[in-house]
Design brief:
- By secondary structure, the protein is an alpha+beta fold.
- A hairpin with a 3-residue loop joins strand 6 and strand 7 (about 140).
- It has two domains: about 5-55, 2-Layer Sandwich (Uridine Diphospho-n-acetylenolpyruvylglucosamine Reductase, domain 2); about 60-265, Uridine Diphospho-n-acetylenolpyruvylglucosamine Reductase, domain 3 (2-Layer Sandwich), CATH 3.30.465.
- It is built from eleven helices and 14 strands.
- About 45% of the residues are buried.
Amino acid sequence: MYDFEYSKPSSLNDAVKALAADAEAKALAGGMTFIPVLKQRLNKPSAVVDLGGAGLSGIKLEGEKLVIGAMTTHGAVASSADVTKAIPALAALAGNIGDRQVRYRGTIGGSLANNDPSACYPSAVLALDAVVKTDQRVISAEDYFQGMFTTALSPGELITEVHFPIPERAAYMKFANPASRYAMVGVFVAKTGSGVRVAVTGAGQNGVFRHTAFEDALNKSFTAAALDGINTPADILNGDIHGSAEYRAHLVGVMAKRAVVVASD
């Protein structure tokens, strides 16, 4: 580690001002990625602005939408009665992120801001066609994710809330790395009045992506059998020491079928 200024503003406005005052300042959410990066000196901010006191946590139902504050922890999402009632698939997703320590420190906003290609939340945001609200604007899921570790956020722009439309049915299935619990492949399937959306995380070379071939098939018949014979091109997927691109392509189909079965129950 090295010296840097630390502050914990008591409001969103103060946090925004603190970040704007120093071009080298960085925001701290749960710190599950940021702290290891600091330890490795891969990022050397002059100031760290802790968002823990900015009033950005909380969960509420607003009509046909579930609103989750950016600083809400994975554990809070997993245990929320509102989330379990409105989108049980999202509660299940959050309850299987990392380990207990990660779930009670890591936040939904921090995960989305980092946009790790193996993170779980991006698949839910994209499949559910959620919107990401910041201190400056509202960003659609389609516009928000722009590649591996890349988002539409501008420097200093802070996520404040995520708005999830409530689907008719949904499910998320993950094939997790046994050590990190990150998704080697995760598939979120959501059925709404406007159709089916399928989002894949952990596998794509450019991060989370929609599987339109699966969507077309499931819009005709929302059954696991509808996905028979539909292949995922391996050349758009990652291959590494944990699994080849071809292996991940196979897992995408397996996880998608499992998600459809769970969503249909």
